[in-house]
Design a protein that fits this description.
Number of helices: 12
Distance between the termini: 30 Å
CATH architecture of the largest domain: 3-Layer(aba) Sandwich
Pfam families: EF-G_D2 (PF22042), GTP_EFTU (PF00009), RF3_C (PF16658)
GO molecular function, one term: GTPase activity
CATH superfamily of the largest domain: P-loop containing nucleotide triphosphate hydrolases
CATH class of the largest domain: Alpha Beta
Subcellular location: Cytoplasm
Largest sheet: 8 strands, antiparallel
CATH topology of the largest domain: Rossmann fold
Number of domains: 3
Organism: Alteraurantiacibacter buctensis
Oligomer: single chain
Radius of gyration: 24 Å
Helix content: 25-40%
Protein name: Peptide chain release factor 3
Length: 507
Amino acid sequence: MTSNRRTFAIISHPDAGKTTLTEKLLLQGGAIHLAGEVKARGQARRARSDWMKIEQQRGISVTSSVMTFEKNGITFNLLDTPGHQDFSEDTYRTLTAVDSAIMVIDAAKGIEPQTLKLFEVCRLRSVPIITFVNKVDREGRDPFETLDEVADKLALDVSPQMWPIGMGGLFEGLLDFRTNAVARPEGASREYLGKRDQDAPIPDQYAEEIELARGGYPEFDLEAYRHGDLTPVYFGSALKNFGVEELIDAIARFAPPPRPQPAGDVEINPDYNEVTGFIFKVQANMDPMHRDRIAFMRQVSGTFKRGMKLVPSGLGKPIAIHSPILFFAQDRELADTAEAGDIIGIPNHGTLRVGDTLSEKNQVRFTGLPNFAPEILRRIALVDPTKTKQLRKALDDLSEEGVIQVFYPEIGSQWIVGVVGQLQLDVLVSRLEAEYKVEARLEASPFATARWLKGSDAALRTFAEFNRPNLAKDRDGDMVFMARSPWDVNYQQEKNPELTFSATKER
């Protein structure tokens, strides 16, 4: 039974309120009992998805976490994604594993650059989007202005499903168009505490705009939404609990169940007759006490049973999966079974990597999880040269996670790390120290970007003879051209038409 699964991500610009919304969704779903806490084994733990040290220091999400909760017979798999642009690779891969997304927009700021980028990734994969306009209890822009911006910038039809009665200091509640109930702020904190007025009279100063909002936009169309042509829009305040119930209800009613996934020229449907899935994320040291390493698998088809054997495409021989994990906030449970759409964590010691397909017969290869060419390259130098072995292990772990890429130059002994954004370098240094007890410096590199080389063995050998100082191997042993500038890439492409200089590498 897959129709009761909803696997979705939350996308937003930093500071739009995504982490708060995540927490309130978990609270509503009963996965946590107090905002910010989870009861697990008799002990209150942090339930925020921002569990890494650097995230706690900076207040940003730099990893993608998985949280599962159940409500009214529906299993919700929520994938939290980094909002910061420097982690676009991790976010891109996470968006390959979801069937829908919630786009969180700050009511005062509208669509910000990172929101736009993440939306484009969703559009590439036809991921349907529900829009949540957050922070309506604060001073913000006119709601019509926000709706028009979504329609114009994202080329989407917008269909408001609720409306704020006033905003900021004048905020008097939220009208649900479907039920005609108004959720009211209560008490000194002005939170939503569960009180709704059915068919409540609307103050005269808001009646006209509410009629315009009801009649001036397209009605909700399920097919248009699931095609990615229309977004239903919800207003609310995650901090004050407004709109959160309605949002969960919308995901349950509208968001698609597990969708087919591309595997080369074919698509694998959820009812395909064997268990298949793909690894979209690897995370080391989620539990520093146990130095664990979890591969996150999006199950695409079949009914998984604990202990069954699956073949990872990168290994070619079956492995038995004895301790698969489901994630409930930051608590974990052994998964006896899992269905298409579920995200299961597989503990392993380097066997599984991002992009691997897992299947019973090793006849399926899921596609579309690329590595991107790094935009920043740095040499890495140890403060204590005796820790070379620990550094190699750490770089292997972190590159398997997708936090960084590692390149081993053909000439010279200093390894080079590549990232998409500066913040990833900060995370690298922080995690080396916190998790691996390795102190390292990042030094300038002569290279500006990298390109994966593809071509015949003869052409690659000839190119290597003349360009060895500019060549490196990635962690798979594939040849990489280290370019000193974009001009350098173009020059070599023109000079070597028999080779492909690729900015992406698909696993």
